Structure to design on (128 residues):
């Protein structure tokens, strides 16, 4: 995957690989959401206030985690759409290749490393 030349960037094999990886991420996130719903529907009656507080804190943590996953799910689905549209792997800001190594680490990346660094610097400077 990484050994391919620049001319082979985002060829059919790479696109299939990333689509498969993204679809697996999507399945995992949806599975986690289903488990959370089942877990939260369990009615556990605990008379001890300390135990009840612990359970409520665990539920709150689980809900925060699912909220992060909900946001990730949206990015995963957008990435799959970009693959289908032929735009995947290219920086939204510059049009340059994002790079296979970066996409391997973060398959939902929409910016090249340089563009992402510039965006983060602007956000720190201007609160953008």
């Amino acid at each position: 995957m990484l050994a391919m030349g620049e001319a082979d960037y985002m060829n059919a094999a790479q696109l299939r690989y990333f689509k498969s990886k993204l679809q697996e991420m999507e399945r995992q996130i949806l599975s986690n959401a289903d488990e959370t719903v089942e877990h939260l529907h369990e009615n556990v009656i605990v008379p001890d206030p300390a135990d009840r507080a612990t359970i409520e804190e665990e539920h709150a943590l689980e809900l925060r985690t699912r909220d992060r996953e909900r946001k990730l799910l949206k990015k995963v689905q957008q990435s799959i759409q970009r693959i289908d549209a032929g735009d995947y792997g290219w920086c939204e800001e510059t049009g340059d290749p994002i790079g296979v190594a970066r996409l391997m680490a973060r398959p939902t990346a929409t910016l090249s490393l340089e563009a992402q660094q510039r965006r983060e610097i602007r956000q720190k400077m201007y609160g953008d």
Summary: The radius of gyration is 20 Å.
